[in-house]
Amino acid sequence: MRKAKSEHLPLFETKSGKGLIPFRLFVASTLASICFIFVYRVRFMPAVPLLGNNELEADLGVRWTAWIGLFLAEIWFSFHWLLVVALKWKRIYRTTHKQRLSLRYDEAAFPGIDIIVCTADAKIEPPIMVVNTILSVMAYDYPSDKLSVYLSDDGGSDLMFYAMLEASRFSEQWIPFCRKFKVEPRSPEAFFDRASEPIDDHHSSMANQYWTSIKKLYEEMKARIESPTKLGRISEEIHKQHKGFREWNFVSSRSDHQTILQIIIDGRDAKALDTEGQPLPTLVYLAREKRPQYNHNFKAGSMNAAIRVSSRISNAPIILNVDCDMYSNNSESARDAICFFLDEDKGHEIGFVQFPQAFENLTDNDIYSTSMRLVTEVELPGVDSNGGPCYIGTGCFHRRESLCGKKYSSNACQGEDWTSKNDVKIEEESVDEVEETCKVVASCTYEENTEWGKEMGVKYGCAVEDVITGFAIQCRGWKSVFIKPERAGFVGLAPTKLLQSLIQQERWLGGQVQFFFSKYCPILYGYKKVSFGLQLCYCHYALGAPNSLALLYFVAVPSLCLLKGISLFPKLSNPWVIPFVYVFFGNLIYSLVERLCCGGTCLEWLNAQRNWLFGRITSYLFAILDNILRVFGITKWSFIVTSKVADEDASERYKQELMEFGATSPMFTILATIALLNAFVLVWAVKRFILEEQSLVIDSFALQIILCGLLVFINLPVYQALFLRKDKGRMPSSITYPSIAYALAPCFIALYY
Ligand SMILES: O=c1ccn([C@@H]2O[C@H](COP(=O)(O)OP(=O)(O)O[C@H]3O[C@H](CO)[C@@H](O)[C@H](O)[C@H]3O)[C@@H](O)[C@H]2O)c(=O)[nH]1
Ligand SMILES: [Mn+2]
């Protein structure tokens, strides 16, 4: 119930970001420089070759083509840079007033929250990790009877089910413990890992004993979960513990089974209490039906099944969704989120509240640039200022109705009563009956001839199902907000190998291409539905992949032209060189300052430059190829789940920040080829220009030599992996030899033809 109505102090606040003036000045000067570059390209364009085929004409042809190519690449970069500017032009940051929330509302009036946790593979997403995520959200500082947790297991694994049973038992102890000691974070693994001492000195030895006993209970549970995980199967003994295991008698494989649904803790059950007699959150295990002849739509399908099941069981007006590795690191996130939805003034138009992703397994200098530091600190606050951040698939609180397709209308939503939205639970039916009816909505055929995956729920057919879903919600008139509290809301695991990170980027960028060419194209579909600024922000991501082509040109052609003696940039002594130098180095320095301001290190910045390059010339390129192959029906896209486990050897190298190349992949062939090509050119150029010829010639080629030198510098870890390292993370010889050949071939052609 609403306590006091009169005061309208907002539940959240929005502030503009600082430091925008230097940024805008930098933008203006860069823009001017870009114009000069374009003028230079047009004015000094080499003569158009005639069609004669004598040697001179052929030479002219090469020169002209290289020039035009470079010009096109520069045009593309400038265009994409403008999209970056649109993204960063304004920024807003939000804070909440949780104390006002409790002053104004009874906890009984808080909206219910259904929490959907997705998992897909018990081998690479260990059940104990999932258990920790589940426990962390069950223990939210929020009325327990308002929380329901659904694990949607795409792996359909009895190991996972068993882990949930264990979690449900342990939660009876864990939740009161968290409440009593205000534990943070509420993932037991993370908590016991960090807090080596009992929490409170002032408390008697009783507190210490309590602490130790809970820790022991956790360790025991962990051991019980991990031993069948290692074995890969459930023992007979465990099998007898719960009727739910019988379901697996009918499972032929993880891609062919009936719906398995077990309400492990029934929130309606008066006996479902923790050790202190407080109600427990509802806990449900779901593995939707899978049949080989049906398309399962990966995570999106898994989410939609869980959304429907939850609507039959708890039907909370708010849905939180997290990936199975993203445990709650802040017990107050749920309160943060409802501060937005319940705000009297603006809450009614908010469709979802997005928290950033944070990671606990990053190295000091973020070797694979997986921290998303700039995305969280700069980009998403920028998108937020244009109408709301994208939905990024995890750590997001949705309004159930907006996720399920409802259009925003100011009349219907203003002054809404959240209490009446609660308690649509089916009170009379028994657990078994509820389970039976729910199984139907999680079957393969349920979605046939419905809007699920189209206008309802999470969208199908796109590798960034989250982004496209969020965009459609915004196009239906809803706003979204981005909140980054001091203490991170959710913490998960980032890829720990270079190839994993590249494959992840390939999925994201490929998905973005799909998004751009889909019905929901940010330009066409978003027209007049969202602000122009927001359209540009989405385009910045959606048009990321073509950067690969422009960049590949930049890392290969100027170097090859150096060999051939074709100069593509102004002489060092020529004033026209200034805009080139300004744009290139200005941007580098700006990005360094930006990163330092956001709390990064210089080495982290260097790694970011390296990964920027690596990602673009491999993942981004493959993202385009994937889409071409898919359009021609040659391949189907699939969601490659990122592994959350690493062998000891590799994780040791990861901790030492040694890049991991130990795998055969065409991506590595590209990386090695580009690195070698530039190394060959640099050696040749140093020999020829610096040792043999005079400064006059150097003058003409200075920028090309610098570019080549920088590329060699940034590629140092690649040479190391190719020739110097002996560990398992070195480049396999099946990549080294072909790459040498691929790099030498164009060099010879450039030199001798
Ligand atoms: O068929 C599948 C594949 C994946 N997942 C789950 O999806 C989540 C994300 O998968 P992960 O392999 O960790 O991918 P990431 O690249 O880390 O995921 C990011 O990018 C995805 C879109 O590409 C978003 O859906 C995610 O929320 C976002 O964290 C995990 O919980 C998986 O268990 C499924 O449920 N079913
Ligand atoms: Mn992940």
UniProtKB/TrEMBL annotation:
InterPro entries: Cellulose_synth, Nucleotide-diphossugar_trans. GO terms for molecular function: cellulose synthase (UDP-forming) activity. It is found in: Endomembrane system. GO terms for cellular component: endomembrane system; membrane. Mn(2+) binds at residues 299, 323. UDP-alpha-D-glucose binds at residues 125, 154. The chain crosses the membrane at residues 21-44, 64-87, 576-593, 661-686, 701-723, 735-752. GO terms for biological process: cell wall organization; cellulose biosynthetic process. Pfam families: Cellulose_synt. The active site is at 154, 466. The keyword Cell membrane does not apply. Its main location: membrane. The keyword Mitochondrion does not apply. Thought to be a Golgi-localized beta-glycan synthase that polymerize the backbones of noncellulosic polysaccharides (hemicelluloses) of plant cell wall. PANTHER family: X-BOX TRANSCRIPTION FACTOR-RELATED. This is Cellulose synthase-like protein E6.
